[in-house]
Q: What sequence folds into this?
């Protein structure tokens, strides 16, 4: 039997959090309080046990799609589910896409899923596991919205049509950024997408912005890399 497609009213999205436009760090929830990135270079080497195994799919054809400034205003939950990504307490999340963007919703959800299931993402801390669902109770939501709708969903944070945000338990991704990336990731759209998913989900987990730790070091994923990385190197992962 096919799964129902659920349309979500905009008022359903919570209105507190942080964004690349205006940091507003909430207190850390208990399940996220233990999430801390290790020092650069301390992760397992490639091929070693525990080394990264999952990778994001190549950017979908959405990267060639014109940016729609204002979508339909309706958010539709993408059908489908995944297995829990780690051994910790399971946090269930949905993926929703605004109508009228001209973006393949299933491809978007697949990139979100692959990012959050990667061992370099938040599951690495061992404090939680992430699982996508399309119905029932959820703790997190990932939304792809047009610039205009992003601005509405993120208020009172000022996203100005060009930023994404984490608001309450919802990661709102600006479709313009999803399609065009950011200067620090020029020519690396797939990696930028991994970054913006991890960054805004980090806000939804209760984490706040961080600064560059030093020249030529990987930028923390909670750094506002969309605005630039300074003397750091762009890095899309909490645990590179």
A:
């Amino acid at each position: 039997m096919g799964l129902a497609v659920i349309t979500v009213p905009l008022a359903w999205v919570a209105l507190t959090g942080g964004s690349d436009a205006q940091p507003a760090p909430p207190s850390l929830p208990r399940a996220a309080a233990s999430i801390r990135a290790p020092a650069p270079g301390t992760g397992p080497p490639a091929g070693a046990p525990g080394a990264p195994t999952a990778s994001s799919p190549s950017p979908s054809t959405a990267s060639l799609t014109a940016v729609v400034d204002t979508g339909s205003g309706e958010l539709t939950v993408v059908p489908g589910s995944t297995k829990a990504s780690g051994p910790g307490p399971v946090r269930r999340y949905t993926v929703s896409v605004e109508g009228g963007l001209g973006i393949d919703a299933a491809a978007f959800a697949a990139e979100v899923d692959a990012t959050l299931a990667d061992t370099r993402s938040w599951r690495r801390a061992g404090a939680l596991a992430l699982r996508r669902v399309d119905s029932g109770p959820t703790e997190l939501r990932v939304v792809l919205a047009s610039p205009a709708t992003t601005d509405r969903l993120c208020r009172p944070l000022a996203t100005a049509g060009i930023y994404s945000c984490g608001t309450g338990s919802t990661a709102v991704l600006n479709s313009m950024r999803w399609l065009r990336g950011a200067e620090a990731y020029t020519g690396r759209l797939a990696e930028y997408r991994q970054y913006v998913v991890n960054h805004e989900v980090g806000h939804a987990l209760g984490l706040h912005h961080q600064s560059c730790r030093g020249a030529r070091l990987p930028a923390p994923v909670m750094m506002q890399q969309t605005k630039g990385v300074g003397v750091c190197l762009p890095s899309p992962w909490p645990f590179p």
Notes: The helical segments are 105-117, 147-154, 175-180, 189-204.
